[in-house]
Amino acid sequence: MRLLERLAELRESEDRGILFTAVEGDEVGTKVLVFESGERVGEGLEDAVGQFDELIRRGRNRLLVLDDGSKVFAEWYGPPPRLFVYGAVDTAEAMCRCAKLLGWHSIVADARAKFATRERIPSADELIVAWPDEAYAQVQPDHQTAIVVLTHDDKFDEPALIGALGTEAFYVGALGSRRNQERRKERLLEAGVAEAELGRIMGPCGLDIGADTQEETALSILSEILAVRGQREGGFLKDAKKRIHVEAE
């Protein structure tokens, strides 16, 4: 009863957790609920529970096949992923519209108050008028947050990307040409960003789908975000070697 009560509370809260259920093996039927805070309800399934950190970051349900051949279903609970866009440009609105279809929570920030308005970005769940460091302090991006920088202006791009690299965001993307990306890379290195950290930046961001319009660009970027979150390459399914549905692995 305690487990069911805590599971119901988890569904209604902003917390994250995983419900482990043994579906095959000696412990079949055993359930253990683990919260990101460290709270645990239930005993057993130690090998499965030991994978909690990886599973909570992947943000998806998964069937675990353990070394002894037993199977445990890991059911992920938590609020929807967040899309944080710095730069209240037209592409940001297109991305927020797409994010709504995915059920994601979208946030758009910009230091320019005349850009970050409901008239220009009506689809965003949150609008923030602030410089990058202030916006990050307010949003506190975590491992279920994707960050995309769209400003095309060094005075915004550089602090936005430096700030993003200081978070646990699972995705950091930057719009711009390859030439701009190289120039930006040099400036970030001069600003003290480590070479290894620069590898986290997806730039130019997006999948190569021939995007032209703002809506197509938004789709390209969000597709790449989904691919990164699902630990996929984002190629043609006909050429893929893995199962189509990532949660079935």
Quick tags:
alpha/beta, Rossmann fold, 9 helices, 11 strands, six-stranded parallel beta sheet, 249 residues, 21% strand
The CATH architecture term of the largest domain is 3-Layer(aba) Sandwich
Q: CATH superfamily membership of the largest domain, which one?
A: NAD(P)-binding Rossmann-like Domain
What is the CA–CA distance across the termini?
Answer: 31 Å
What summary fits the major beta sheet? 6 strands, parallel
Biggest sheet strand line-up = 8-7-6-9-10-11
**CATH class assignment of the largest domain:** Alpha Beta
Q: Helicity range of the residues?
A: 25-40%
Q: How many E-type strands?
A: 11
Strand content: 15-25%
Tally of DSSP helical segments: 9
Structural domain tally: 2
Structural class: alpha/beta
Order of SSEs: HEEEHHEEEHEEHEHEHHEH
Low-confidence stretches: none
CATH topology of the largest domain: Rossmann fold
Average pLDDT works out at 92
Radius of gyration: 20 Å
